[in-house]
Amino acid sequence: MKKEELTELLQRVAHQQVTIKEALAQINDQGFLDLNYAKVDTNRLQRTGAPEVVYGEGKTAEQIIGIVQAMLVQKNNIMVTRVTAEKATLVRQAIPQLKYVAVAKMLLYKMHSVQPVSGKIAVVTAGTSDQKIAEEAAVTAEMYGNQVIRVYDVGVAGIHRLFAKLEIIRAAQVVIVVAGMEGALASVVGGLVSSPIIAVPTSVGYGTAFNGVTALLTMLNSCSTGITVVNIDNGFGAGYSASKINHLQEESNENSLS
C-alpha cells in the first residue's frame, strides 16, 4: 500500500468510517477486502483494466455505503448500478460526493478523468419506454471515456424515424440497440450499418413479451450479421462491452500511426 493510501486509510479509521479490522485487512491486502457481507475486489483494475462496479439491487443502503467507502481508498472511479431514488438518498447522506442519475438508477463518483476516446458509441432505442436501460448503457460508456450519441424512439412501428437518423448512427464505431416488445429493431439496424452491434432486450411489453424473453429470442435468432446480445435489461453490460470494443479500435488506430 502506498504511503498516501495508508495515510488516508488511517484518517478514515480516526473518523470511524472504517473499522480497525477493515483497515488491517486493507493493509494486508490479498486482492480483496472482506466486509463480511461483501468481498470488495481491490485489484480488478490491475487484472481487467477497469475497477469493480457495485450492483446495488438487493443490497441495503448501509451495505452500499460500506462497500463504496472501502473502494474510495483505492482512488478509483465509482459506479453503483440499479439504485432506487430512496436508497440513493440514504447513501448520499453518508457519501455526498456521489452523484445520482435518476433515469439510469446509478450512483457515480468520478475521482479522476478518463482519457477520452475519439470513436463514438451510438445508443439507439425502439421506444421511450426503453430509455432507462439505454441510459444505463450510455452513462456506463461515458464513465469509461466514450462519446455517446443518443438516438431514442426510432422503433420499427415508425421506421422512417430511424432512416432520418441513419447517418448519425453509421458514424459510430459501435452501436447499442435497446428494444423491448418483439425486439425487431436490432435486426433492422444490423442490416443497415457496418459497425458491430450490441443488442439489449428489455422487459418492456405486453403479456407475450414475457418480460423480455420474446425480444431476447428475436435478437438471438437475428439473420443480420455482427450482432451480439446481452442479457435482458443489461444496459450496464452493453455499455461496458461497447467501451471495450471502442477502446480496442482506438488502440489499433494509435498503433497504425506509430
Quick structural summary:
The protein is α/β, with parallel strands linked by helices.
Helix content: 40-55%
- Counting structural domains, the number is 2
Based on CA inertia axes, which overall geometry fits?
A: elongated
- So how many helices? 11
Find the structural class using helix and strand composition.
alpha/beta
Radius of gyration: 20 Å
- How is the biggest beta sheet arranged? 5 strands, parallel
Into which percentage range does the β-strand content fall? 15-25%
CATH class of the largest domain: Alpha Beta
CATH topology assignment of the largest domain: Rossmann fold
CATH second-level architecture of the largest domain: 3-Layer(aba) Sandwich
C-alpha termini separation: 35 Å
Any low-confidence stretches, pLDDT <50, length ≥5? none
The counted number of beta strands is 11
Oligomer: single chain
Trace the largest sheet across and list its strands: 8-7-9-10-11
Q: What would you note in describing this structure?
A:
- This protein has 258 residues and is α/β, with parallel strands linked by helices.
- It folds into two domains: 3-109, no CATH class; 120-251, Rossmann fold (3-Layer(aba) Sandwich).
- It has eleven helices and eleven strands.
- It has helices at 3-14, 20-27, 44-48, 61-72, 85-94, 131-143, 160-164, 166-170, 185-190, 213-220, 235-257, and strands at 32-34, 39-41, 54-55, 78-81, 99-101, 106-109, 120-125, 147-151, 174-179, 197-201, 227-229.
- It has a five-stranded parallel sheet with strand order 8-7-9-10-11. The protein has a four-stranded mixed sheet with strand order 3-4-6-5, sandwiched between helices. A two-stranded antiparallel sheet has the order 1-2.
- Strand 7, helix 6 and strand 8 (147-151) form a beta-alpha-beta unit.
- The protein is elongated and about 60 Å long.
